[in-house]
Amino acid sequence: MGLAGQISDVAWKTAFFYLFLVGLLRVTGKREIGRLGAIDLVGVIMISEAAIIIIADGKIPFVVGVTPVALIGALQWVFAYLSLKDKRVRNLMFGEPSILVAHGRIDERKLRQLRYNLSDLMAEMRGRNVPSLADVEFAVLETSGKLSVVPRAGAAPLRPDDLQALGVAGAQPGSALPTPQLPATAVLDGVVDEDALRRAGKDRAWLEAELRRQGHPGPGRLLLAVVDAQGQLGTIQERFEHPGR
Question: What is the tally of structural domains in the chain?
Answer without folding.
Answer: 3
